[in-house]
Structures are given as C-alpha cells and as structure tokens.
From TrEMBL:
InterPro entries: KH_dom-like_a/b, OsmC/Ohr_fam, OsmC/Ohrsf. Signal peptide: none annotated. PANTHER family: PROTEIN YHFA (PTHR34352:SF1). Coiled coil: none annotated. This is OsmC-like protein. SUPFAM superfamilies: OsmC-like.
Length: 131
C-alpha cells in the first residue's frame, strides 16, 4: 500500500490539504503543529483507537477512554524522542484488570504507529480503571 502526501512550503513551515482539512506543520508552535507533537499524537491516538476496538470486541462496557502521553526527548542534538509513555484512564462497568492487561498487549502488537517506531522509540503503557 502506497500513499503520497504533498506539502507546500509557507513562510514558517509547511501545509498540506487532507480530506478532513488543512494541516499546518512548523517547528514554531505559533504557526502549526510541531513535528514531534504529530508523531506522539499518532502513536498515542492509534493505541487508543486499537484498544477501544479490542475492548468493544470483548464486549466490555466502556463509557470513556482518556489518555495522556508523556514524552521524553534528548536534551541535545536533534532532540529526538526517546520514550513515549501512554497512560489510559478507562471508565466503565465491571471492568476486569487482567482482560485490560491482555488487551493492552494486543494493542501494542496491532497499532501500526507503535510498530513503526518500536525499534527506535521506547513506548510504554499504563492504565487505571474508573467506575
């Protein structure tokens, strides 16, 4: 599967037109999304979406999933992302901790974004259950 995205230079970054709308990307947050924010968002939201699908297939009563992503970047050089820690807050009824742990392991294997960075960025996950 191959897809081409085209980006046009603008004064302070780049812009692309996507089916949902325009995406502005810039190293300066005043002019667009920063590239590292997009990468972290892709990994975190992909994980959240895959986890939600797995939990739905397991017929768990999920009311809401909120996630946060903590990013660790190198302090010098290109300031590469070293680690992304994703914390899920899962709200629902009669949630089984062991099933959620297994679902997270499946999530890691089936999230294309996690699999894309797995050899270069450490990705970890934790969760908490809320009634």
């Amino acid at each position: 599967m191959k897809e081409t995205l085209t980006y046009q230079a603008k004064e302070n970054g780049f812009i692309t037109d996507l089916p949902y709308g325009q995406l502005h990307v810039s190293s300066d947050a005043r002019y667009g999304f920063r590239p590292y924010q997009l990468l972290v968002s892709a990994v975190a939201v992909c994980s959240g979406g895959v986890l939600r699908k797995i939990l739905q297939k397991q017929r768990m009563e999920i009311e809401d999933i909120t996630l946060s992503a903590e990013v660790t970047r190198k302090e010098d050089g290109a300031q590469e992302i070293e680690k992304i820690h994703i914390h899920f807050v899962i709200k629902g009824k009669n949630l089984d901790q062991k099933k959620i742990e297994k679902a997270l392991a499946l999530t890691r294997k089936n999230c294309s974004m996690v699999q894309s960075v797995i050899n270069s960025i450490e990705v970890t996950e934790t969760f908490e259950l809320v009634d």
